[in-house]
From TrEMBL:
InterPro entries per record: Aminotransferase_I/II_large, HTH_trans_reg/aminotransferase, PyrdxlP-dep_Trfase, PyrdxlP-dep_Trfase_major, PyrdxlP-dep_Trfase_small, Tscrpt_reg_HTH_GntR, WH-like_DNA-bd_sf, WH_DNA-bd_sf
All residue ranges annotated as the HTH gntR-type domain in the record: 20-88
Protein known as: 8-amino-7-oxononanoate synthase
Keywords of the record: DNA-binding, Pyridoxal phosphate, Transcription, Transcription regulation
Organism of origin: Microvirga vignae
PANTHER family: HTH-TYPE TRANSCRIPTIONAL REGULATORY PROTEIN GABR (PTHR46577)
Similarity annotation: In the C-terminal section; belongs to the class-I pyridoxal-phosphate-dependent aminotransferase family.
Molecular functions per Gene Ontology: DNA binding; DNA-binding transcription factor activity; pyridoxal phosphate binding
Any Pfam family the entry gives: Aminotran_1_2
């Protein structure tokens, strides 16, 4: 510790979060220290320049954090005296709202009949006379009969899944991780949409992979941009979501899918296809995997159509990877809990899965109608998921809009979660499944609409 820091006597935050803008990391640390009592009412905070020097930040970054904190009522400035922690007196409604923000940042399905249906199935499974077989060791890819039934339930149209190439995983996240470990090594480059699934970014970071952004258009990844990025980077793996891409909700046409498949053959490109949202369409679009089965990994999941805690996903691999997939499943989880796959099979065979899927589609449609009615500039989707892609006026950055929404106790997905090249997307994802009902959803969306129609606060620029 240097002598300047030793002489410093004011407040210093703990470790700042590495995620997101620096001013938000500082603001969150300040708010946490106030909430947890490390800073009390009347505590004097360091001057902007003093704190900036201690933390290695720009003065503008500290100023913006302080300004935001003052707007939230956490601190107050006194001319000629400094900046101090203040005590806020909240009304009952405001205090309740502060404790329970409307979470439109986390993509979850709306509550429906899943608890009732799963409770009944769990009771059935637990009352099986001979439960012992489900509690024993099983093949790493899952029980053979379970794989056969699940494989038959996945496809649509002429697309079929070979149960010998389908493996059960602990959700889609596990399936993606296995697929990446099969085709990439630390230091490799992976092609992704310029706005991609945040969970994939986390897996790539954990595996020390470099993401190469591919420009998008109204259908998702642009084929010409894909070819250019592939040749320039030398990357040989492309992760994509052709149906209801997260976060933009864009869907590739059949023509686009054929073109991407042709490029995969031409460029010797392996595809990791994430199809967790395909069930929202009454007829699941033809997967890319259908066109290039020997160079494509196909992933589905039950978390969006059943429940987030129902951690069961599927990974269909090219035939040459079956043995290696068994090995990685052995190493990572041994096998999926057989009681969970037994419940999935019972969902399928009883028709309850179809009931849940129909309910999910209707819930998503009802909520998206509210969203598109309040935000007519958003794309109209015939078969929407539980999220919408909200275009922002030019004067709003996605970061500032997320911050403004938070001041109104509404959480929306910050753009840094999905961006690959750090460019401002000019839009933001709004998740529609979290609010408890259509009334709460409508109220939250009207609040966001009020925010978006006013100019953003004139804040300091940050380094």
């Amino acid at each position: 510790m240097d002598s300047d820091r030793m002489r410093f006597s004011g407040w210093l935050p703990g470790q700042l979060s590495p995620e997101g803008p620096r001013y938000l990391a500082l603001l969150n640390a300040l708010e946490q220290d106030v909430n947890e009592g490390r800073l009390t009412e009347g505590s004097r905070l360091p001057a902007h320049r003093e704190l900036a020097q201690q933390l290695g930040l720009s003065v503008g970054t500290v100023a913006k954090a302080y300004q935001e904190a003052e707007q939230r009522g956490i601190i107050s400035g006194r001319v000629g005296q400094g900046t101090f922690v203040r005590r806020r007196t909240l009304g009952r409604d405001e205090a309740s709202a502060m404790r329970e923000p409307v979470n439109m940042a986390l993509n979850v399905p709306a509550h429906g009949r899943e608890t009732e249906i799963l409770s009944g199935l769990l009771a059935e499974v637990s009352s099986i006379r001979d439960l012992a077989p489900l509690l024993d060791y099983h093949p790493h890819g899952g029980i053979r009969q379970h794989r056969e039934i699940i494989a038959a339930s996945v496809p649509g149209g002429s697309f079929t899944v070979d149960p010998a190439r389908l493996f059960l995983c602990n959700g889609a996240q596990h399936a993606i991780d296995i697929a990446l470990r099969l085709v990439a090594r630390p230091g490799d480059s992976i092609l992704v949409d310029s706005l991609t699934y945040s969970g994939f970014k986390a897996i790539a970071a954990a595996n020390h992979l470099t993401l190469i952004p591919v420009a998008m258009d109204g259908e998702g990844a642009d084929p010409d941009a894909l070819e250019i990025a592939c040749r320039a980077s030398g990357a040989k793996v492309f992760y994509c979501m052709p149906t209801l891409q997260s976060p933009t909700a864009r869907t590739m046409s059949l023509t686009r899918r054929r073109r991407i498949a042709e490029l995969a053959d031409k460029l010797d490109l392996t595809i990791i296809e994430d199809d967790v949202y395909g069930f929202f369409l009454p007829e699941r679009p033809m997967p890319l995997t259908e066109f290039v089965p020997e160079r494509s990994f196909y992933i589905t999941s039950y978390s969006k159509c059943v429940a987030p805690g129902f951690r069961l996903g599927t990974l269909t691999v090219p035939s040459v990877f079956t043995e290696k997939t068994e090995l990685l499943l052995h190493a990572s989880s041994w096998f999926v809990a057989p009681m969970l796959s037994e419940m999935a099979v019972r969902l399928i065979e009883s028709g309850k899965l179809d009931e849940l899927v129909r309910e999910r589609r209707q819930q998503a449609l009802d909520r998206y109608r509210v969203f598109s009615g309040i935000f007519p500039a958003a794309e109209r989707l015939k078969f929407p998921p539980f999220y919408g892609w909200l275009p922002l006026p030019p004067e709003w950055s996605a970061v500032d809009f997320a911050s403004a929404a938070r001041r109104h106790n509404i959480l929306v997905t910050p753009p840094i979660a999905s961006t690959v090249d750090d460019a401002d997307p000019g839009a933001i994802r709004v998740c529609l499944g979290g609010p408890k009902d259509l009334t709460e959803l409508s109220n939250a969306l009207y609040t966001l609409n009020e925010v978006i129609t006013r100019p953003p606060l004139n804040v300091f620029s940050v380094a």
